[in-house]
Amino acid sequence: MGRTLQNTMINLGLQNACDEAVYQLGLDMEELEEIEEDAGLGNGGLGRLAACFLDSMATLGLAAYGYGIRYEYGIFNQKIRDGWQVEEADDWLRHGNPWEKARPEYMLPVHFYGRVEHSATGAKWIDTQVVLALPYDTPVPGYMNNTVNTMRLWSARAPNDFNLRDFNVGDYIQAVLDRNLAENISRVLYPNDNFFEGKELRLKQEYFVVAATLQDIIRRFKASKFGSTDSVRTVFDSFPDQVAIQLNDTHPAMAIPELMRIFVDIEKLPWDKAWDITKRTFAYTNHTVLPEALERWPVDLVEKLLPRHLQIIYEINQRHLDHIASLFPNDVDRLRRMSLIEEGGTKRINMAHLCIVGSHAINGVAKIHSEIVKTQVFEDFAALEPEKFQNKTNGITPRRWLLLCNPGLAELIAEKIGEDYVRDLSQLTKLHEFVDDDLFIREVAKVKQENKVKFALYLEKEYKVKINPSSMFDVHVKRIHEYKRQLMNCLHIITMYNRIRRDPAKLFVPRTVIIGGKAAPGYHMAKMIIKLINAVAQVVNNDPMVGSKLKVIFLENYRVSLAEKVIPATDLSEQISTAGTEASGTGNMKFMLNGALTIGTMDGANVEMAEEAGEENLFIFGMRVEDVTELDRKGYNAQFYYDRLPELKQAVDQIKSGFFSPKDPNLFNDVVNMLFHHDRFKVFADYEAYVKCQEKVSELYLNSKAWTKKVIRNIAAAGKFSSDRTIKEYARDIWHVEPSDLKIPPPNEPRDAGQDKTPNGTAA
What we know:
About 45% of the residues lie in helices and about 15% in strands. It is of the alpha/beta class and about 775 residues long. The chain has three domains: about 1-35, no CATH class; about 35-95 and about 100-225 and about 235-390, Glycogen Phosphorylase B (Rossmann fold), CATH 3.40.50; about 445-720, Glycogen Phosphorylase B (Rossmann fold, 3-Layer(aba) Sandwich). It has a six-stranded parallel β-sheet with strand order 21-20-19-22-23-24, sandwiched between helices. α21 (about 525-540) links the parallel β20 (about 510-515) and β21 (about 550-555). The two termini are about 20 Å apart. Keywords: Allosteric enzyme, Carbohydrate metabolism, Glycogen metabolism, Glycosyltransferase, Phosphoprotein, Pyridoxal phosphate, Transferase. GO terms for molecular function: glycogen phosphorylase activity; pyridoxal phosphate binding. It is an enzyme of class 2 (transferase). Allosteric enzyme that catalyzes the rate-limiting step in glycogen catabolism, the phosphorolytic cleavage of glycogen to produce glucose-1-phosphate, and plays a central role in maintaining cellular and organismal glucose homeostasis. It catalyses: [(1->4)-alpha-D-glucosyl](n) + phosphate = [(1->4)-alpha-D-glucosyl](n-1) + alpha-D-glucose 1-phosphate.
């Protein structure tokens, strides 16, 4: 979520008033804003997307709730020591959190372990351990519409009789100390991005948020006029018309068997009825196609922790496979491929398959990704029910990612086309009229230059390096992962360095290359990549032959508040994943909206950015998905590129020989070995096209006017990538609710009778 203060002032229309009031107190608002900690309750794009979605849902007047876990420790703080990443605990609650309100009156029990008893009246889950879920509510204000939605985060609490009910008669002290075991559930965020780690505590976290949330939703449904009761029993027929639940990846997949358990075991609905309601309630968004990221939980772990849920999953699977078998008799391989249970070695539950079978809508997050989901990853399911599969291209909130972080550009745009674009970003197309307006071109360039000077001062303060603010700011910020190919950027840096040294007199367009992002603590290769970048920076930044032509900076502790500083100052945005691996990306959209040009592959939302702006206004290079597929068919041979490309050979040899690690020449052996022998992401195959494309970038940068015209065309084409557009599509195609642009009257004005409720009864 990042910081909340400035976003709240902007959405409430109070920023200028607050700035002025604080100034009159002799304080500086920007200094105050810097004191607030980021709420870093997610890993990368997935968590930030949810935050943008909350902003858009409130701005569109949807009655929506965001549910999650109130981690005591969020994503770790990254320190760079001697070029290595070191993790520190993110004690973000140390000084309290003024934006949250604990709601003990809505505390709910969540059950774990135990066993299942079957009887004539049905199944009973008994002898369980109970953990309490305490909700904390954070307000989510819409933009200038007097709507405030809620983000409800659950914190784990031990019940007061924890470990004191049973055998533990004597050891009272130990029993109280053991309360930590229960409360550890919400202690810390697992720091993996695009990687599955099948740990028991993680499964506990996933079930914890799901069980508490579903109880909360059902309580709210029963309290509403829709949850009509026939004497005692609630009628749930209207449930899917009143409630829509969107599963953000498979992490909350246990919601499907949990809702079935509530309907069948507790509310005593017949299975078929319960299953129909469940399917119509859930929709699933897939966020990655990387096989190592797909959640596959061991059956024995689920059996131990959630025995009743395993039985329900088996029943769902049996009925699912019976249906497949009736359509495709004797096709055992299809049954194996489509089963929710993977046999062979340890039996595992494929959570994506569970989500597909248990949802009425499945979507990818960019056109190309949704195609890959349909035609490759889940082709058997899409062949069966093609109508379930959709696309919803991701977006970003223009409030945080333009108004808040780049007020200079936001104001300049407003002078030209008015202020309405903030709520309807498609209006940015009006900027096309000014693409040849010399004054506007100069003003856009001036805003960028001011942002660069400000960020250069920040860098000089934090990193003690002299930055040339007229150099091209070439920025690559995102989680560190092999598929995102920070290594390819690194090879380009080394190539530029070698060219400068080979011919110091030759014209070279000065660059400041900024790379930033966190590596998962257990991801050895990603940590080596960080060390390599820092080792290269050490050599480049201290070579007198290079001077101010090339500087390399590794941005420490990349997070939302740092993104808000670096993105407005960027000239060139690096979006260079291997085609077919980045589901969408959202950083790409933030850079586009803030006046950077993109160098990128035809991957994720880059494809649609090129479609909107015109491919000639992005620097597109490298293999397309078809080329990657063809190369896989032929077999990728890294040696072939190394032998054929002298500059690539030189760069790799320097890494291999210890040129960047003279004290330990073998330091980067693992990296080099990976590049030659098991590089799934084919860095060498795109190197030549990437370097050539970078030459085109430098050439254009020399012509400030031509560069800025492309910038304007990009900004004018960025409207599609508002999360407001994305959410309108979810609302229309999946949740079946109508966004409302009615501005609720402010609390100091009396409301008309009958206007006390928004027209949408449905909650997403």
